[in-house]
Design a protein that fits this description.
226 residues
């Protein structure tokens, strides 16, 4: 896989709460320079990302109800609609892990379905937090999210939900089949990591170490890159 092919599968990420405008501008410049699939930023930076990336092939992505997943359905749906209005092309959304583990499957599915509707056609990626789930719960999470209309299932937010591994990605690929995409996130720091996850069945990778992955140089990645 060439560096360009690899970059086209990476959503280069900085959603750290301490990220400054300069940090985000550097991330966006790196996305344009290296041709990353997308720039993943917090909602407050979506207008800046949309303006900076306008006319390019880089997609503006944002993460909602992140990282705790404690927002009400109404508030998360409003946030999804607002993000799209501000210029986000894709939204990654925390799922309600506590609802799933409480047997509240109807509520879990309905929450994601309402967010999908609010996103008005923009792809929604469901952050499953797989490390917090049993294999049976993970299978149900994938099924309910597929039923809700998400475009991708994602193993983790990168915070508390565990790192991506080839074994976990292969499990998600098997559960999802060809119905939805699979995004891997968490602990992806090297080209070897990235290629192993893509080989296991990931369609997209989320990482703050995008430049390091495609060039070997650190770029804007920090030691805690996820």
């Amino acid at each position: 896989m060439t560096p360009d092919e690899l970059a086209a599968r990476i959503q280069h990420t900085n959603v750290r709460p301490q990220a400054t405008r300069a940090d985000v501008e550097r991330l966006l410049a790196e996305c344009l320079e290296h041709g990353f699939n997308g720039a993943m930023v917090s909602p407050i930076w979506v207008p800046l990302a949309a303006a900076t990336l306008n006319g390019s092939a880089v997609r503006v992505c944002t993460a909602l109800d992140f990282p705790m997943g404690g927002g009400t359905t109404a508030s998360v749906a409003r946030a999804a609609a607002e993000a799209v209005r501000m210029g986000a092309h894709e939204v990654d959304v925390m799922t309600k892990v506590g609802w799933l583990r409480s047997g509240m499957e109807t509520e879990y599915r309905a929450h994601m379905a309402e967010v999908v509707s609010a996103a008005a056609g923009a792809p929604v990626k469901a952050m499953l937090e797989a490390a917090l789930l049993t294999l049976t719960e993970l299978a149900r999470a994938v099924e309910l999210c597929v039923e809700a209309g998400v475009s991708y299932v994602k193993n983790s937010s990168g915070f508390g939900g565990g790192d991506a591994t080839p074994e976990l990605v292969a499990e998600l690929r098997g559960l999802a089949g060809d119905r939805v995409g699979v995004k891997a996130s968490g602990g992806i720091r090297t080209r070897q990591d990235a290629e192993a996850l893509l080989s296991a069945g990931a369609d997209l990778l989320g990482s703050s170490a995008g430049v390091r992955i495609v060039t070997g140089e650190p770029g804007s990645a920090q030691p805690d890159a996820y």
